[in-house]
Input
Amino acid sequence: MSKVLMKGNEAVAEAAVLGGCRYFFGYPITPQNEIPEYLAKRLPEVGGTFLQAESEISAINMVFGAAGSGARVMTSSSGPGISLKQEGISYISGAELPCVIVNMVRGGPGLGNIGPAQSDYFQATKGGGHGDYRLIVFGPASVQELVDLTIEAFELADRYRNPVMILGDGILGQMMEPVEFKVKEIRKGPEKPWAATGAKGRARNLITSLYIVPEELEEHCRKLKEKYDRIAAVEKRHESYFADDTEIVLAAYGTTARICKAVVDQARDEGIRAGLIRPVTLWPFPDEPYYKAAEHADAFLTVEMSNGQMVEDVRLSVNGRKPVHFLGRTGGIVPTKAEIYAEVKKIVEGGVR
Output
């Protein structure tokens, strides 16, 4: 299979088409603008529809409508835009509708800047909107993973009738890497007998997240919780990199994990038994590998482009068995290999407890 050099945002867009996406609703914001730009041309070529909404709020409610009709649909944005979509994301989750949401994270809070960041982790994994709901969240670390996980996101969204988020960052969206599109034919989604397609010779389908009677809402929330438990039981994914015999385990995802791999290589070359455990699913979070690593590791170091968000899940996973340290950069600044390695040396040599 041949590879093609593509920018991350454009690769996501092509992957969405191959994954069966036929509708895209969005509103421009840097650093993800190449996604709607690409789909504005590409979707009509396959009989799909691209529409630039008048706002992010409009876009996410259009996603609700298309998903409710059984279509495979996607939207994309970055920090402030994803914030505006939160009410709609809660509605979509409550109505159990499948869709894919891409967030190429930029610096925040507020308008922040257009530099890369990982400071939307809480928003993505803990539920940025109201009520008890969960998104399946992928944290890709390469343009190839952006492709593969975007295609898979449509499958999981339909399988669980749940939104799936691709949580990238400004670097992944803008970088160019060789990618292979392993799906050669455009996928079609499964039959959706629950969809609101017009009651033609059948009972009507009602799609809603409104349950006025308390007991009915509680029953609905219980059903959602059971679904989330099923997802957590089978969909946790991670990558281990020299993590079986470590004295220190690095925890990182996305772009930061790429840098941490280089740190692990340098540490190993200099006699430090370092390793990396990279979550691929940010929710459900792969807690077991961290808990198991605490049997032999002396310490953990979580590295993020934030003030410390995923580190909370790492600490919960380790469950107090070993110290979990943190190194973060914000403002669109990417932590360097040198500063991460210096922190690793300090921890190993006992300078930080």
In short: The chain has two domains: 4-234, 240-348. The CA atoms of residues 93 and 115 lie 29 Å apart. The longest helix spans residues 214-234. The mean pLDDT is 96.
